[in-house]
Description:
Blueprint: H1 2-18, E1 23-27, E2 31-35, H2 77-84, H3 102-105, E3 106-108, H4 130-148, H5 150-158, E4 161-165, H6 168-175, H7 182-186, H8 189-209, E5 215-218, H9 227-232, H10 241-265, E6 270-273, H11 275-284, E7 299-300, E8 315-316, H12 333-345, E9 351-352, H13 356-365, E10 386-390, H14 416-421
Parallel strand pairs: 2-3, 2-4, 4-5, 5-6
Antiparallel strand pairs: 1-10, 6-9, 7-8
Amino acid sequence: MASSKSSLAIFLCLILAVLRNVVLEAEARAFFVFGDSLVDNGNNNYLATTARADAYPYGIDYPTHRATGRFSNGFNIPDLISQAIGEESTLPYLSPYLTGERLLVGANFASAGVGILNDTGVQFNNIIRIGLQMQYFQQYQERVSDIIGPEQTQALVTQSLTLITLGGNDFVNNYYLVPFSARSRQFALPDYVVYLISEYRKVLARLYELGLRRVLVTGTGPLGCVPAELAQRGRNGNCAPELQRAAALFNPQLQAMINSLNSEIGSNVFIGANIQQTNIDFISDPGRYGFVTSKIACCGQGPFNGIGLCTPLSNLCPNRDIYAFWDAFHPSEKANRLIVRNILSGTTDYMSPMNLSTIMALDAATNSRIPHRPSAHPTELKTSRRLKIEVKVLCPPALSRSHTSEAPTEPQTSGAAKYEELGCGQGSCMDEDFT
Length: 435
């Protein structure tokens, strides 16, 4: 029996391997983004908040060389994923330019400063908390339905790709924000992590109820190793141990929750992206990835350039490509490329249960794609864009190639009923931290 299963696994892997160098043509899919500053591409520009990246030198390496609201010197993670799936970058949902056909590309609902909990990031005042982000997504569907009709809208949403990034702020800008914070007095760290995971599960279940069926869920990075924490809590340039412990507790429990949720649904709806491991790779051995430092931010002030955000008066490095961190908290564009490279084609050390290239190949092979975008319903639209996908197969772990020491190359730029079953009936998933 074991031999039979092994033979079947080998056969399936070989079938996929035949497709490895085949270029598949498929209809470009909509892309939705939820989360915090790691994936916000400008929503906070439209809000009266201090959590903003709308001034030089943010955006210095973006094609326009202007600040866009991204907490990056250039492209962020959603931009690079959009490029990989053959789409233009999604616009912020609050952008006045997100109208007409641009709505069919998708939308970015993320807002810098938010967390899983509603009391995270209170110091930033007016930000789009995750519950409101999902309300905006419902509103988005209504707007799209007015353009292409409810049936096509449902298909667009069901067969879209989604990215959600939450969790880091719940530690940095909540539990550890000040000594003896309210949450640290309420919970010991292990209990707080369990609470966060239970609340995050409600968020993911809600996304499922809203129709999303391919959702990339990132964990946190190594929270204690960012320049801000090296400056404030680290000793002798070493990562801050308490925040490292928080990440070490949170990320495995997040993946276990994802596995449990997928098992209950009966499908791999949620895909775990272990961005902590990618960060550890280039933080522990920056030279291997072309960085001169993984401790000092390119832009900032104070020790490790880790105090405050990047401003026109900050220290600014001349070559952003040799710095792993752009500012006190956020990776540089080059580091983002390494993260997305592993999202696209990383082994199970980085993506579970499969990477994005495998998802795209499987979806194309099973014709699980959105219908062709209409050319005239009710207004004339442009010819639908098409996408070429290079299949990079993720074989079963026992059959995949061993992890090599070679540095990864950069990617090219170019059910309500089921919700009830998950224990989240109308309103039952919304506690005081999720309303």
